[in-house]
Each structure stands twice: as structure tokens, then as C-alpha cells.
Specification:
The structure is a homodimer. Chain A is 43% helix and 25% strand. In chain A, the strands form four sheets. In chain A, strands 2-1-3-8-7-6 form a six-stranded mixed beta sheet, with helices on both faces. The first copy, chain A, has a five-stranded mixed beta sheet with strand order 14-13-15-16-17, sandwiched between helices. A four-stranded antiparallel beta sheet of chain A has the order 10-11-9-12. The model of chain A has no long low-confidence stretch (mean pLDDT 93). At the A-B interface, helix 1, helix 2, strand 2, helix 3 and helix 12 of A face helix 2, strand 2, helix 3, helix 8 and strand 10 of B.
Chain lengths: 414, 414
């Protein structure tokens, strides 16, 4: 199945936002064996949308459109689509009832613009958008499929996952394609590739290994095609088992798993509780932990100690320690772990202190220097990172490392 | 001048990288009054590039191509371009000499692929690429301009800045275009549109208003064209002033500003310090505040109180309060503010407690119910939100609301 993505939005054409939707969609479509043959961004005008549609339709079986909906501008895209399919707009009662309920629940009132949002091209199949007000639309004409979705990323992702992709798979069944994704943390792409060299060389022609690096994490994806789905899946599972023996210490999960979820599982598995004492990560570590549903079972709380006063008064870091070694030091994060353990009475404590930047560094401790400690009442492990000058990257990378240290600490059974 | 950007690259079509080049180019082009009418991504094949070129040329005066060059795949784009312009490839001695010098300086040797990189379409004007080996190419045909540049961002940016943009400005001395972006928080798109109805209706033909909604925030963009840049800019500034009088309470910044930066500015302006006491936002609120460089001047720290024990022991929330009203209640967040103020001795405290979901709700307090309180020693303001079922969205939306409540509280001068 050939897909052309059409993104509707002046904000992309003036460079105000970067189109990240298309890359996500392309990845997902690839996983079901679809090929994205083109991505086109057009303006929010009838003429541009028609032009984009016309060009996209030439070689594609499926045209996926995002954007150009929403209460203030939905007319254009919907009217253009109705014109393109030579049909009219009709009022969609179900969508209207859903919007009214949504507003009632939020204790707010709808406006005329929301009512107008409910007029839909007559030939459209309407997809309920659980994440927002503008529904998705599916059209079929001359064996081709056209889908229109809102441009808000989480709304588009919801519709793709639950409505569009399952229907596309059914309508365009191709040669079986399957994937396995192995999630690793704690080792870089090139070193992993070295460990996997032999394995990669020996892969049969129908299997392919790809490295997808992220911040502190690398995903390994094995993709394969075959004539028989069952044999292909068995073959892939076999290869995953082989990888497990090659780099066991770096694998924390598979598929769409998350490191913070893996951390939650190891804590739950040993019935351990945790608390964080954060300086440079400023709450991002706790946010990651609590982004997992059910984390209240093992996460008790945190003290974010940005100022030295909070480090001393709440976490019992000694003034002499701060004076002798500084806030960004192994000694300080060790005392922070001790402090949070006695304060919140959890089994495990994790502490971070660093210079997130972009300013504030010294020759001895450059921007990007971060100390992390993880421990319980018996043992504390520490690690020093030297990252870079980008504030957010420093915060995110430290958080990944801290989560992985917790994972390693719990697995080691200290 | 109408510009169509054509990005050549399989890595974009499989979603491996996000096309950030186009957004940068669009921004730069806008600043010189050019209008980007479309962005198209095509595959690394002769056929796709030709197709993309054909479609792009239809309505554009200028076609800017990036990617598809470089030692491993340059043949395709250059041969395609030579074919398109019905010309041949000739050896470009100057480029060759530059590459040889470059390699000598680096103490490396060139390969045959680098020699082949020096064959260029005969009708091309060659731009020296100081940042890499693949030069830029400029073509003119039937009054239209075609430019081919490498896809490596800093190479493309160098060529755009020093070669392409100056020549485009000279060749198409066009009408100036300018934009203003007004950032708002605390009111939805359709209600803002209602307040702005008259203003929007009365806008002269050369100005256009667009609504760009995000989670809890809406950006308003006024774009305009004119004959005189100075008059146009004055006109836009006037309109911004008008908008300021129409929806003053919702505007927190302009351009690429951020809400958390605006909060930092109002705190800094009154020399106030702040601390957070978070339950459902789990550190995300503190993370947003500390994502701003320099936040250590006003942010002292937080207590993240996920468990009731931490709410009671660290934040002095009374056991009776939790029993009578529950952890997700106005009474609890009020006491949390009181607790964090006495604990960390800041001027302002902000507290959140809610059911982030996706499970854990009751009929009385459904998933997505969140209470927020902001206050000082004299006054505490509270707000109840009912959001939705998506955990991350609940956390992010609550955080935006909490930040805005802090902004409002400080501005009100309680």
C-alpha cells in the first residue's frame, strides 16, 4: 500500500512549527508494511488543499491528511473535501451530542463554532475523537482511501492507532511483515553494534536489524518479511532470544515499553518503595516515575532541593559538606540519599545534583556535570556524568541515567 | 515570490528523522517577504524527484531542493536535474581542487566517489559549500529559479544565508511580509475567537489572523503583506496593541516566549520566591519552572507528596481533613499550600492534587478531577478542573493551569 501524507497548515509553511506528525505517521505505517511515497504540506486554503490532494492521489492508494480542522477553521478542509467528493455537508448528531456532554462534564458552555464543527461531508465515515472535539473522517473513492484527522499530535495519534491503522490493515492486506523491538539503556549505538556484529552479519536476507538511538537509550529493531506469518514470527522470536544472550545487561524491555515502567516493575516485584531527592533534575525524575499509572504503589514522594537551604534543612545535608565539596559532588548526593531515606522512610532513595546550564559552570565543574546517587540503608552507588551545554538535554539524560541506576540497584539486590 | 521546498530523502519518508530544515528555511524566507506555498518530501529516486519537481514548479517562482547529494547518492539528484534541464554533466575543476585541499588539510585521502561529486549539470551556477564537500547549484529556466543544496542542516544553512537568500532578494524584490504572534493562556480557541470577532472582521485585506491552539494555550498570529516594510510593521504593532486591550487577561507573552518563562519574570519582577507541593502533577510543575535557565533565583524547591503520609508529615495536612474531604479536595490543597510555605519559607506556594488516571476515579470525583491552590501567608486562591482520562494530558494541562494561576496571583498583587 502506497501512502501520501498531506499536512494542512500555514503554521508549518511559515516555519512556526516543525511537522513532527508526519515522521510519527511514517514510522507507524512502515510497521504495517505500508510505504510512504510522499509528504506534502499545503496552506489552509481551498485551492492549496485541492492541489495537494490532486498531486497526492496520483500514485498513492491512501491519502492521509492532518490539520485544517478545529472550531475556527474547520470549514475550509471539510468544505474542500465535500467539494472534492461532489457531496454536501450534513449535521452529525452523534458528534454534537458528544461535544455537548464533554462541555457539560467540564462545566463549560459550547459556542456556535462547536455546532458548526458537527457538519460533515455526507460520504464520510466519522471516527469519534476521544481526545478532542474534531472527529476524524474516512472516505473511499475509486478504490482509494482518504482520511482527514486533526493536526493536534495526541488527537491524530489516537485516531491513527484505534481507527485508521486497523482499517488500513484490513483493506490492504499485504505480505506479512513483522517487527521486534528490543529496548536498551546504558550503552551507545556503536558499542552495541560492535557486540552485535557477528549476529547482524549472520542474519538471513529476509531479516534486517536497525539501530534507533535516543537520549541515553538505543532501540534495536529486527524487521522481517515472509510468506508465512507464523514461521516469520517464530523466526523473529528466536532472534530476540539470541540478542538477549548477547547484551543481557542493557535490555530493559521490548516493544513500546518504557524505562520508567521497567523501573516500576522491578520495584513492585520486590515490594520496594522509592523517593527522589532532586536538585538539577528539578522534578523531571519524579515526573517520569509518576507518569506510569499505578506508580503510587511504590512512589511515596520527593524533596526537590534547588536551594542549599532546602538541602540542609529538609535533606540533612551538612553545611560542611556543601562548603568542602560543593552542592555538585559525590558527597552531597550521598547525603541527599541518606536524608530522603530517613525523611520519607522509603526502601530506596535516589538523588541528583548537577549544573544543568547553559551557564553556571566552572573549569573544574563544567556545565553538564551531574552527580547521581542511588541507595538504601546499607549501600549507596554513585555515578558522575559530564553531558553538554543544553539545559533540557542535561535534565533528560540525567533522568534516564538515574532511572537505569535504580533498575540496576534493585536487580543487583543490594 | 512564491517558493516550494522539495526535500529529498528516504530517511524522512520512513520517519527516521524529522524534517527540521524546511521549518528553518520557511522562517528565513518569510523574513524576506517570500511565501512558502508548499513543502514536499520525495524519495531518493529519479522518478520521485522528477514528480516532486513537476508539482512544485506549477505555482512557484522558486523551487528549493535539499538532500539527495553527498558522496553515496549524489548521482541521482544531479543526473535527474541534468535530465530535467536537458543538459549534460561536466567536471567542475574548482570544486575538485577544493575537495583535494580539504582532504589534504585533514590528512585523509579522497575516494573515487568524491571525484564523481565534481560532475555538475552544465547549466548550473555552482556555490562553494564551505561547510562540506557537496556544492550548491542554482538553475534558471523560464524565469523560474531552482536551487539544489545538501540536506545536512549546517551546510544548507550556510548556503542559504550566504549564497541563496541574497540572490533571491535581488532577483525577486517583492512585497514585505511580517508576522506577530500573541501567546494566550486560560481561555479556549472558540471563546477567544468570539471576543475577537469584531477585530477579525475589521482587519484590512492585507492582514490575516490565525488561531494556533495547544494544551491550555492558544497562540494568535497576525500576518500581513504591504508595500512598505516600515508601515506594515507599524500597522502590525498597532493591531497587537488593539488585541492587548481586547483580551488583556489572557496574554502572557509574544513570539517564542514560554508560560514558565513569563511566570519566572513576574516572580523576579517582584523579587518573590516560590515552592511547589505536588501530588497529581508528580514533579512536572517543578520541572516546567526549573526548565528555565536562572530559575534558581526564585524557585527554592518542592515537596512531592504522593502518599497521604507525606502530605501529613511533611506538609502538615491534617488527618481529619484527608478523612473528611479526601486527598483530592479544596481543603487539602489549601493545607498543602500552608504546609509548603512554612516548610520552605518561600513567598508563594502552589499545590496540586487530583486523579491523573486512567483509573482511580469515583462517581463523585471522576478521573481528571484536579484541585489547584496558589497562595501566600495572606491569601489562597483555588481552582477545580475536570479534564479527561489521559494521564499525561491531565498532568500537562494541570501544570499549565497551575502556572497561569501563579502568574495571575502575582500580577494581582495579593
Amino acid at each position: 500500500m502506497n501512502v501520501h501524507i498531506v499536512t494542512i497548515g500555514d503554521e508549518i509553511l511559515i516555519g512556526q512549527i516543525v511537522d513532527t506528525n508526519s515522521a510519527w505517521m511514517a514510522q507507524q505505517l512502515n510497521l504495517i508494511g505500508a510505504q510512504v511515497i510522499g509528504i506534502t504540506t499545503v496552506a489552509d486554503t481551498d485551492e492549496s488543499i485541492l492541489e495537494g490532494l490532486k498531486n497526492a492521489t496520483e500514485n498513492a492508494d491512501v491519502v492521509l491528511m492532518t490539520g485544517g480542522l478545529g472550531p475556527t477553521k474547520d470549514d475550509i478542509t471539510k468544505k474542500t473535501l465535500a467539494g472534492y467528493f461532489k457531496t454536501g455537508l450534513v449535521f452529525h448528531q452523534k458528534t454534537w451530542e458528544r461535544i455537548v456532554r464533554l462541555f457539560e462534564r467540564r462545566g463549560r458552555t459550547w459556542t456556535e463554532a462547536h455546532r458548526e464543527q458537527c457538519f460533515m461531508p455526507q460520504n464520510a465515515t466519522i471516527f469519534k475523537n476521544k481526545m478532542g472535539t474534531a472527529p476524524g473522517m474516512w472516505f473511499e473513492e475509486n478504490g482509494k482511501v482518504y482520511v482527514s484527522m486533526p493536526g493536534v499530535p495526541y488527537e491524530m495519534k489516537y485516531l491513527m492507532e484505534y481507527e485508521v491503522m486497523p482499517r488500513l490493515k484490513e483493506k490492504f492486506p499485504g505480505k506479512p511483515i513483522a517487527h521486534r523491538t528490543i529496548l536498551t539503556v546504558g550503552e551507545g549505538e556503536s558499542r552495541l553494534a560492535k557486540r552485535m556484529e557477528r549476529f547482524e552479519k549472520d542474519l538471513p536476507k529476509n531479516l534486517k536489524l536497525a539501530y534507533l538511538p535516543g537520549l541515553g537509550q538505543v532501540r534495536l529493531r529486527i524487521s522481517g518479511t515472509g510468506d508465512n506469518e507464523q514461521i516469520l514470527n517464530a523466526h523473529l522470536d528466536e532472534k530476540v532470544e539470541e540478542v538477549k544472550t548477547l547484551i543481557p545487561e542493557f535490555i530493559f524491555g521490548f516493544g513500546t515499553d518504557k524505562l520508567e515502567a521497567a523501573v516500576g516493575r522491578v520495584l513492585n516485584g520486590k515490594e520496594l518503595t522509592i523517593a527522589t531527592a532532586e536538585s538539577c533534575t528539578g522534578g523531571f525524575l519524579a515526573h517520569k516515575i509518576t507518569s506510569i499509572s499505578g506508580s503510587s504503589a511504590y512512589f511515596m514522594g520527593s524533596v526537590l532541593a534547588y536551594s542549599n537551604e532546602v538541602k540542609m534543612n529538609q535533606l540533612s545535608v551538612k553545611e560542611e559538606t556543601l562548603k568542602a565539596y560543593g552542592a555538585v559532588s559525590e558527597e552531597t548526593v550521598r547525603e541527599m540519599v541518606g536524608g530522603i531515606l530517613s525523611l520519607l522512610k522509603t526502601d530506596i532513595g535516589v538523588a541528583t545534583s548537577g549544573i544543568a546550564g547553559p551557564s553556571g559552570g566552572t573549569e573544574e565543574k563544567p556545565v553538564g556535570t551531574v552527580w547521581i546517587a542511588v541507595g538504601n540503608r546499607e549501600k549507596i552507588i554513585t555515578r558522575k556524568l559530564i553531558i553538554g551545554k543544553d539545559r533540557l538535554k542535561n535534565i533528560e539524560y540525567s533522568t534516564v541515567q538515574a532511572l537505569n541506576m535504580v533498575r540496576e540497584f534493585v536487580i543487583a539486590g543490594y
